[in-house]
Design a protein that fits this description.
The chain is α/β, with parallel strands linked by helices. It is 40% helix and 19% strand.
Length: 199
């Protein structure tokens, strides 16, 4: 089966959906600001530990979405995509092959846009929808490849095109494709893998 692989944030949409969703929630549920004196020091401490390489990015991210405990999550997600689904790049809507979206963003956030856009397969970071805590590993870098081949047998798929905004983070998935496309300001810029990574 021929498939195309797409990153999501800053690729299919021009923003980081997780960060924007956090902002949306604080704007629409302002009582969350009352918790900032508690949340901010914890996040800052975790950020410092991550930057010092004392904890992983996944460990840091485990606490980032804990505020979902305090909001009507399904309503918030639907409201968020009611506002932002129109920002999906038009070229994504004209896809022709079996489409696999692989993202580090939370499943509780992307499941709704998956339903709305109707692409074939979503692979993303699993979260407990009640607590916001990550289940397993954050779906980025090599983890994207691992998760892809948990879903598909290598011998059953032929990866034609790979799309991502991040040359740094998505080398592992770019290495799988016959064709590579770097997304810059919503535009698809083709490149050869060996020209970028074998210098």
């Amino acid at each position: 089966m021929d498939i195309d692989i797409y990153d999501f944030d800053k690729t299919i949409v021009p923003f980081d959906s997780g960060s924007l969703f956090c902002g949306y929630c604080f704007l629409h549920y302002p009582y969350l600001f009352l918790l900032l004196p508690v949340i901010a020091p914890v996040l800052l401490a975790a950020l410092m530990l991550m930057l010092l390489h004392l904890i992983s990015f996944t460990s840091f991210k485990r606490i980032c979405f804990m505020f979902v405990l305090l909001i009507p999550l399904d309503k918030a997600v639907k409201g968020f995509w009611d506002k932002h689904a129109c920002q999906v790049h038009n070229w994504f809507n004209s896809r022709k092959r079996y489409s696999v979206v692989i993202s580090a963003s939370p499943d509780f956030l992307l499941n709704e846009i998956h339903r709305r856009l109707g692409f074939d397969k979503l692979i993303c970071t699993r979260h407990n929808s009640k607590t916001g805590v990550i289940i397993g590993e954050n779906c980025r870098d090599e983890e994207k490849v691992k998760r892809l081949f948990e879903e598909f047998d290598k011998n059953d798929i032929h990866i034609v095109d790979v799309y991502s905004d991040s040359l740094k983070r998505d080398k592992p998935i770019f290495s799988l494709g016959e064709n590579c496309f770097h997304i810059v300001d919503g535009e698809r810029i083709p490149f050869k893998f060996e020209d970028v990574y074998n210098k």
